[in-house]
Input
Amino acid sequence: MAMPMSDLPLPPELAAEAPPIPDGDLDQLLEQAVVEAHDGGVSPAQAVELLADSEGAPRWRITDLGGAEWAMRHVAAADQALAQLQAQRQAWAERIDQWFAQAAGKEQARRAFFVGHLERYAIEQREATGGKAKSLAVPSGVVRTTEHKPKAAVEDDAKVVAWVSCWYPEQVASVCPPVPPKVYVQPLREHTTVVEVIDHARLVLANSAEVVPWVRNGWVPAPGEGEAVPPTTASGDRCPEQGDGWPTPEDATDLVAMVQVLASHPEVHDADGRQVPGTKVEPGSVSAKVTAEQP
Output
């Protein structure tokens, strides 16, 4: 679309009777700058500065208002041309994007369909082998799986900030920003651990082979979780581990030979084994990446 005459920049040649730099010399300088930029891996602006400082280059400088007006008209003309080129590039880019979206849609769908099946199969094979089969290799490529451990996450910033301030005041600056309540998750993870807390278990004693049901204090099974708890079930805050004395280390008459976990849940604990309030656990997962060999 043609521009109104009032919007067109004044031609530089109208700024003075004789251009400070002849048109032929100026064109040669600019064309040489384009070549130097391409060959030297620099921008045209950097290239023209290098040429202007090189030996034998024209030593023109602005010395009066006429020269300044001549230079400004060149800037206006360059801006005008660049705007037109950018508009044309955008129009062509939009057409290329539309063409690509239409042409690539079928292949993107085909890849996504088979990648999904390959990833699921590789994860199934990993699970079936207890984590030993970390990669699925076939002649045309490989699917690599990666295990992501459960991680601490923030559920209530104010509670975590209060906990850090109480138990680890020296870590407040690294875990919490200057204006609470807000928590930096990564430093929090560096000072905490995700542990699996046993809620319900069967303890098999070593000498008598007696099976003792055990529940965590305050635990109430959710619908369908675990089994009915017999009235003679032992309880405590921490489930005994294999090798612990039974019923207590002080008056133990037997050792725990095996712990069969019936119900458990993950928690975020600090270095001293305390549960961190205001936190939750992001569950672990296994991801897969498909890499096909190129022909």
User: Anything to note?
Assistant: Residues 140 and 295 are 9 Å apart (CA to CA). The first strand starts at residue 135 and ends at 138. The helical segments are 23-40, 44-53, 65-128, 157-167, 172-175, 185-190.
